[in-house]
Amino acid sequence: MTSSHFISSTSLVILLTFHLISTISESAVPSSQTFTYVNEGDFGDYVVEYDANYRALPPFSSPFQLCFYNTTPNAFTLALRMGTVRSESLMRWVWEANRGNPVKENATLKFGTDGNLVLADADGRVVWQTNTANKGVVGFQVLPTGNMVLHDGKGKFIWQSFDSPTDTLLVGQTLRAGGPSKLVSRFSAEKNADGPYSLVLEPKGLAMYYKSPNSARPMVYWTSSEWFTIDKGSLTNLTLTSNPDTDEGFLYYLTFDYFTTNPTSGSNRNMAFSRYNNTLSYLRLEIDGNLRFYTYNPNVQGAAWEVVYTFLDRDSMEGECQLPSRCGKFGLCEDNQCVACPTPNGLSGWSKDCDVKKVTSCKASDFGYYKLQGVDHFMIKYTRGDGPTKQTDCESKCTKDCKCMGYFYHTDGSRCWIAYDLRTLTRVGNSTHLAYIKSPNK
Ligand SMILES: *[C@@H]1O[C@H](CO)[C@@H](O)[C@H](O)[C@H]1NC(C)=O
Ligand SMILES: *[C@@H]1O[C@H](CO)[C@@H](O)[C@H](O)[C@H]1NC(C)=O
Ligand SMILES: *[C@@H]1O[C@H](CO)[C@@H](O)[C@H](O)[C@H]1NC(C)=O
Ligand SMILES: *[C@@H]1O[C@H](CO)[C@@H](O)[C@H](O)[C@H]1NC(C)=O
C-alpha cells in the first residue's frame, strides 16, 4: 500500500515536470516563425489612400497586406492595406498600429520567440507592442478577413487587430460596451493623428461626437436613436456582418448584429445592401465626420470600390447640414448646401473663409449679441438643451462664460443651448428657433 503510494506520487511529480517542460516549449514561437522587418528600401509603386508612400512587408492574405506608410517625410505608420494589384484600384488603409506616434527610417517590427510583437524606432524606443510576451503565443497570421492575430497552440487568439480599431470597422469586427467601444476620425489626409470626430457605442445605440478645441466636452451631432430595439437593458456589443439574402439570391446585406442585456438577447439591423458578395466591406468614420460603408469587389478592374451607403447625405435619413464642418468655421446650411455667412449686418454670401469675429475679452461690456432667426446649431437636433428657462437666463449663462461663443434658444418650449463652437448652422424655417452670436463691440 505504502510503497505503491510512494511510486504513484513520484510518477505524478515526473509527469507534472514533463508537462511543465512541454507547456513551456509549446508556448514558445518556433524560430522559423519569428521575424524582424526593417523599415528601409524603395517605396512601392501603386496608388494608395492619402497619396502615401509605402513599403509592403511580407505578411499578406489577399486583399490585406501589412505595410509601413508615410504621408509626411520620415513619419511612418504600421498599417494593414486593403486592395490587390490585380484590381488596379486604390488601396486603402483599414487598420493602424501607431496613429499619432510615427516611427522613422530603419524602425523595426519584431516578432520574437516570446510571442510579443513589437514596433520600435531605430534608436530602440518601443512605439507600440501587443504585450503578449510569454502568454502562450505560438504564431502570427494575417487572416483573409483583415484580422491580424497572435494565436496560441489551440488556435485561440491571444491578441487580434480587430480589438483595436482606429477609424475603420471591417466585416466581422466588433464594438463592445467594455471597449473597444469607438472609432476616431483621422485628422487629415496628410496628418495621421486623431481627428475631432468619434463614433461611440452607447447603452442605447450609436452616437457621433465633435470635439471642439474650444471645449472639453464633445458635442453630439448624430445618434442612431430609433434603430435598435432596446427597452430596459443596454447594448453589449455590435458586430458588422455581411449576409446574403437567400430569398432574393442576388442581394447581400451589410448588417449590424447586436446583443443587449436585460434580457440578454441578440438582434440585427440591415444597414445597406449590394448586388454582389460584400464580405470585403468596412464602415469608416471619415475625416469630415461622415460615416460610410465601403465595399471592395476584386473582380471589377479599375473600380473595385463602391460606397454603398453614406449616413449623412442628401439621399439618407440625415442630411449633410448635420455635419459640424459642412460649412466651415461658421456658415448657414440649407438643403445640403452652404447658403450664407451670418454677420452682425445680416447674411452675406458663403465662402469657406466665413468666420465669427473673435471676442477676446471676458468683460460683458466689451461684447454683445446679434440675432439670427429660424436657425439651429448641429447639436440641437439630438440633445434636449436646458429648460424650460427664460431667455435672459440663457443669455447671462453665455455672458458669464468666456468660452461661450453664442447661445441658441427655442421660444416654444423655452429651451437653451450654450455653444462653445458654432461651425455649421442649419436653416429650419421655424421662427421660434433663435441664435444669439457673441460679437465684439468694436
Ligand atoms: C538605415 O540603416 C542602414 C544600415 O544600417 C544605414 O546604412 C542607413 O543609413 C540607415 N538609414 C537612415 C535614414 O538612418
Ligand atoms: C456579444 O455579447 C453576447 C452576449 O453577451 C455574447 O454571447 C457574444 O459572444 C458577444 N459577441 C462578440 C463578438 O463579442
Ligand atoms: C463571399 O466571399 C467570401 C470571401 O471573400 C467567401 O468566404 C464567402 O463564402 C462568399 N459568400 C458567398 C455567399 O458567396
Ligand atoms: C417649430 O418648432 C417647434 C419645436 O421646437 C414645433 O413644436 C413647432 O411645430 C415648429 N413650428 C413650425 C411652423 O414648424
UniProtKB/TrEMBL annotation:
<feature type="signal peptide">
    <location>
        <begin position="1"/>
        <end position="27"/>
    </location>
</feature>
<dbReference type="InterPro" id="IPR036426">
    <property type="entry name" value="Bulb-type_lectin_dom_sf"/>
</dbReference>
<protein>
    <recommendedName>
        <fullName>Bulb-type lectin domain-containing protein</fullName>
    </recommendedName>
</protein>
<dbReference type="GO" id="GO:0048544">
    <property type="term" value="P:recognition of pollen"/>
</dbReference>
<dbReference type="InterPro" id="IPR000858">
    <property type="entry name" value="S_locus_glycoprot_dom"/>
</dbReference>
<dbReference type="InterPro" id="IPR003609">
    <property type="entry name" value="Pan_app"/>
</dbReference>
<dbReference type="InterPro" id="IPR035446">
    <property type="entry name" value="SLSG/EP1"/>
</dbReference>
<keyword id="KW-0732">Signal</keyword>
<keyword id="KW-0325">Glycoprotein</keyword>
<dbReference type="Pfam" id="PF00954">
    <property type="entry name" value="S_locus_glycop"/>
</dbReference>
<feature type="domain" description="Bulb-type lectin">
    <location>
        <begin position="45"/>
        <end position="163"/>
    </location>
</feature>
<dbReference type="InterPro" id="IPR001480">
    <property type="entry name" value="Bulb-type_lectin_dom"/>
</dbReference>
<dbReference type="Pfam" id="PF01453">
    <property type="entry name" value="B_lectin"/>
</dbReference>
<comment type="function">
    <text>Involved in sporophytic self-incompatibility system (the inability of flowering plants to achieve self-fertilization).</text>
</comment>
<dbReference type="Pfam" id="PF08276">
    <property type="entry name" value="PAN_2"/>
</dbReference>
<keyword id="KW-1015">Disulfide bond</keyword>
